[in-house]
Structures are given as structure tokens and as C-alpha cells.
Specification:
It contains 3 helices and 5 strands; from the N terminus they run E-H-H-E-E-E-E-H. With 94 residues, the chain is α+β, with helices and mostly antiparallel strands. It has a single domain, classed as RelE-like (YaeB-like fold). The termini are far apart.
């Protein structure tokens, strides 16, 4: 099981993106829990990014909701972590 690390940018984008829609917030939270369990589950549609975002990954947490993240290692524990970078619509995060 990987640990999620939320960046300040991700926290702000999450609050703004889910401010008026509690159902969307629940759907995103479910996707984030699934990312911890199985990052490459078929429902997440996890994929590598290219272009200016080469080296990063993205997954889907709804029809037009994407989470951009990177994979790294925690220097203290040595375990792999998922660093959440941004969340939003397809056009906004890419």
C-alpha cells in the first residue's frame, strides 16, 4: 500500500474544485483511497503523461476529473509514495 502525499497546490485545487459539489468530493475521495490500494486499477485509467508533463502520471476520478501525480520514495521509510500535484478538469490540468 502506497501513502498519499498532498502538496499545498493540490489541497487548494481540491477545495476549489469540490467546493459546491459534495457528491463529486465523495467520488474523488473514493478514487484517492483506491489509489492507495491499487494505483493501476482499471477504473482509475492510470497513465503516463507526455509533453510538458513528461515524467508525471494522471488518473481519472470521474467523467471530467483528473488527478496529476508523481511517484517517489519517502527518504525516512524508503517506501514508495504518491505525490498528488493537481486536480481538475481534463483541460485545466493538462
Amino acid at each position: 500500500m502506497r501513502q498519499l502525499v498532498l502538496t499545498p497546490k493540490f489541497r487548494r485545487a481540491y477545495r476549489k474544485f469540490t467546493r459546491r459539489n459534495k457528491k463529486l468530493r465523495q467520488h474523488i475521495d473514493l478514487a484517492l483511497r483506491q489509489m492507495e490500494q491499487d494505483l493501476f486499477a482499471s477504473s482509475l485509467v492510470t497513465h503516463r503523461l507526455g509533453g510538458t508533463l513528461v515524467g508525471f502520471w494522471a488518473c481519472s476520478c470521474g467523467y471530467d476529473c483528473r488527478v496529476v501525480f508523481s511517484l517517489g520514495f519517502d527518504p525516512v521509510s524508503g517506501e514508495e509514495v504518491i505525490v498528488l500535484l493537481d486536480i481538475g478538469t481534463h483541460d485545466k490540468v493538462y
